[in-house]
Design goal:
Length: 311
């Protein structure tokens, strides 16, 4: 493979990994607060359409991005309402959210299939774009990719260096202790779900505003499920999420280029690659967690457990 093709593949890896990274970071916040959201796929799907529609109507990619983030937060908020207020099962609610989000965006988006929008365009960062290899891979991208470089640091800072982050983690580990300390774990969990949904929405909006610049059905393409698996791979830590997102982005970019090159490998097998890797990652992560900690997971202790009302 020529150096030019290697650089192009690495740049495509960063692009393909960006929406997964946003969604993974959003799910990390939600799960750190104690809420398992299996509706990431639905949030991303609905956000991809909301972002496209607003950008298509207004001509503003940034308004489209905001609409996508809000759509993701709105759908995640519905999940929070069902689970934290009405004490619904988090797994069932999340699965229903995915079905609802994907179905709704496909229904609403049918009249727009094949239509293009302006979205975000790539531009080179002065000086940094001239760096050997790194410049072409990381600094000749679009604004959302550059934003994704800062987001893991912001999430880490929020969770580990602020009182709000401490409260979110307390709500996910020991909500009763958080309440005894004068915090409101229910409110904190709901906030975590909304913040997580917003980031998932940014990942979904990226797909229509930067990745494709057009609308088509099922644009999320299973990336939400990959993000859920990556949270486990990352051991609920933002830094590890970056490596995982780019790993899966690389596999996705690689299989697309193999298809475009006219390889004799059946396309269905190539499409399986990211999801086969997902299963392998889950198995290896579980095995590593057992050997390192003597238990099956490093997940927050109260993840998936609703807060029962007193009295």
């Amino acid at each position: 493979m020529s150096p030019e093709l290697v650089v192009a593949l690495l740049a495509a890896t960063v692009q393909a990994g960006t929406p997964i990274l946003f969604a993974t970071l959003g799910e990390i916040i939600s799960e750190r607060a104690g809420v398992l959201n299996l509706g990431v796929e639905g949030c991303m799907a609905l956000a991809s359409f909301a972002g496209f529609l607003v950008c298509h109507q207004t001509g503003s990619a940034w308004l489209g991005l905001a609409a996508g983030g809000c759509a993701g937060a709105l759908l995640a908020g519905l999940h929070g309402l069902v689970c934290q207020v009405f004490l619904g099962n988090q797994v069932v609610s999340g699965l229903a959210l995915t079905i609802f989000g994907v179905g709704l965006c496909n229904f609403l988006g049918t009249p727009y299939v094949g239509q293009a929008t302006v979205g975000f365009q790539q531009f080179a960062v002065p000086a940094l774009s001239e760096l050997p290899l790194l410049g072409a891979v990381f600094f000749r991208q679009d604004a959302l990719v550059y934003l994704s470089y800062l987001t893991p640091v912001a999430v880490w800072f929020l969770l580990w260096r602020t009182s709000l982050g401490l409260g979110l983690r307390a709500a996910g580990e020991m909500p009763a202790a958080a309440a005894a300390a004068g915090l409101n774990p229910l409110r904190l969990r709901f906030l975590g779900v909304l913040l997580g949904g917003f980031l998932c929405g940014l990942g979904g909006a990226y797909l229509s505003l930067a990745h494709t610049h057009l609308w088509t059905t099922s644009l999320s393409g299973g990336r939400g499920w990959v993000a859920v698996a990556l949270v486990i791979f990352a051991f609920w830590r933002p830094g590890r999420a970056v490596a995982g997102a780019y790993l899966f982005g690389g596999i996705m970019a690689f299989q697309l280029r193999l298809q475009a090159s006219g390889t004799n490998v059946p396309s269905s097998l190539l499409l399986m690659l990211p999801y086969v890797l997902t299963v392998l990652v889950l198995v290896l992560s579980a095995a590593r967690a057992r050997s390192a900690h003597g238990r099956g997971s490093a997940a927050p202790a109260a993840l998936g457990v609703n807060i029962e009302p007193e009295g």
